[in-house]
Amino acid sequence: MPRIVFLPDRPVDRDGDLFRRLVAALGLTDFEIDGDRTKADFVAYVGRERASRDLGRRVKTGLVEGNLYVLPSTAPEERRHFYEGQWRSFAARVLGRDLAVRDEYKGMAPEEIRAALDAKRFPFAVCVANIEYDFNLGTIIRNANAFLAREVVICGRRKMDLRGAMGSHVYENVVHVRDAEELGAHARERGYAMVCFEEAPGAVPLAEFQWPPDPLMIFGQEGPGIPAEVRALADATVFIPLFGSMRSINVGVAAGIAIYDWHARHSSSSGTST
């Protein structure tokens, strides 16, 4: 196993309960705390204070350069900023495998996993149009991975934080288009029927909707919804009926409901329970 040197900010990041439990759970056994970093394969600051001093600049958590990382502090006062996914990403890099994948994919390189998934993907795709919140986008990408969508099309903004995807974006076919015009051209090229999910006049309840072949399910930001120029391209508009007091549900949840409904109508598909 590669040798790790941890450089913690605080005593609790050396021998605190969360630190020790995390290191053990992630399978990191060959490490030293405050050791000689020149003899390490990986160097990981735990907390940003010491890293900022040593590097002479403010740093963010995550990969800094090469095999140098800054990991979130496990100190109690820092736990509102704590994100275990960054620790898992670090462990995956050290161990050379993704800890979040199912057993049959463990030890495989990302491109091998993607190729294996491509061989059995289902004939539907998902599109997000001008999604404002990165967590929602990450959730939709995870949904697409879980249910083997053909691809994820992102219309609009390109720069985003994909931590919410928990690494699943690495295994997905993610396509960016700039606007409605490019989206329409992409849909025509791929042979998609464009299905917008929006509560709008003429929209069909999901339970009554007859899925067309090769649907591209399109979702917009909660509140503003799908941009009008994208809705104008729709072959069908569908809505998910709600029964409570709120006007809408989280768009990541809505996408999961729609994707699962497609799978439920195609009963020959089967997967692994969670």
Count of DSSP-assigned helices: 9
- N-to-C series of helices and strands: EHHEEHEEHHEHEEHEEEHEH
Beta-strand fraction estimate: 15-25%
Please state how the strands of the largest beta sheet are arranged side by side.
8-7-6-11-9-12-10
Mean pLDDT rating: 87
Describe the structure.
This protein has helices at residues 12-15, 17-25, 49-55, 84-95, 110-118, 134-146, 180-190, 228-231, 251-265; strands at residues 4-8, 31-33, 42-46, 62-65, 68-71, 125-129, 152-155, 174-177, 193-197, 204-205, 215-220, 236-239. With 274 residues, the chain is of the alpha/beta class. The protein folds into 2 domains: 4-96, Uracil-DNA Glycosylase, subunit E, CATH 3.40.470; 112-265, Alpha/beta knot (3-Layer(aba) Sandwich). It has a 7-stranded parallel β-sheet with strand order 8-7-6-11-9-12-10, with helices on both faces. It has a 5-stranded mixed β-sheet with strand order 2-1-3-5-4, covered by helices on one side. A hairpin with a 2-residue loop joins β4 and β5. The two termini are 30 Å apart.
Q: What structural keywords apply?
A:
7-stranded parallel beta sheet, 12 strands, 5-stranded mixed beta sheet, Alpha/beta knot, 9 helices, single chain, 274 residues, Uracil-DNA Glycosylase, subunit E, alpha/beta
Short description:
By secondary structure, the protein is an alpha/beta fold. It is built from nine helices and twelve strands. The chain has helices at 12-15, 17-25, 49-55, 84-95, 110-118, 134-146, 180-190, 228-231, 251-265, and strands at 4-8, 31-33, 42-46, 62-65, 68-71, 125-129, 152-155, 174-177, 193-197, 204-205, 215-220, 236-239.
